[in-house]
């Protein structure tokens, strides 16, 4: 009978695969993070001395202020009637890079009427635009 104690080896824990997984998760969360975009309509626009740049917007931005005034790509519309919104939105879509189905971003003031937002959404629907989203901001906790 052999009563000698067996020699036990220290367990070897390889943490390299764990580090790889942590780095992949870090990269994933960095890539998928959304950034805060603030859009403001300036009442007094500054004058520029440089020539007009021919650049087409990636998305069509529609701003609706507290009084229900509508701005498409920072240009104020003459009125907030459905026909005016539809015509201006159609022109903005034709000027964008993605003419088939551009992204429509609606920046509506929290105090604007529900009807103003519905009027803009209805104009987009009549033009066959499907990629309509709303810009929001994170709520500040006190």
Automatic annotation (TrEMBL):
GO annotations of cellular component type: plasma membrane
UniProt-annotated location(s): Cell membrane
GO molecular function per UniProt: transmembrane transporter activity
Family annotation (Gene3D superfamilies): 3.30.420.270
Main localization of the protein described in the UniProt heading: membrane
Keywords for this protein: Cell membrane, Membrane, Protein transport, Transmembrane, Transmembrane helix, Transport
Membrane topology designation: Single-pass membrane protein; Single-pass type II membrane protein
Transmembrane segments: 15-35
A GO BP annotation: protein transport
Entries under Pfam families matching the protein: ExbD
Keyword Calcium belongs to the record: no
Family: Belongs to the ExbD/TolR family.
The protein's name in its UniProt record: Biopolymer transport protein ExbD
């Amino acid at each position: 009978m052999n009563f000698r104690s067996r020699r036990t080896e220290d367990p070897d824990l390889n943490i390299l695969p764990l580090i790889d997984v942590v780095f992949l998760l870090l990269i994933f969360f960095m890539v998928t993070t959304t950034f805060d975009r603030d859009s403001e309509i300036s009442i007094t626009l500054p004058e520029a001395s440089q020539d007009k740049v021919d650049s087409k917007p990636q998305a069509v931005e529609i701003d609706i202020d507290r009084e229900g005034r509508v701005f498409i790509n920072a240009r104020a519309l003459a009125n907030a009637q459905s026909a005016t919104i539809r015509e201006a939105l159609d022109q903005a879509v034709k000027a964008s890079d993605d003419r088939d189905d551009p992204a429509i971003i609606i920046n509506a003031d929290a105090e604007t009427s529900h009807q103003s937002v519905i009027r803009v959404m209805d104009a987009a629907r009549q033009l066959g635009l499907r990629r309509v989203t709303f810009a929001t901001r994170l709520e500040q906790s006190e």
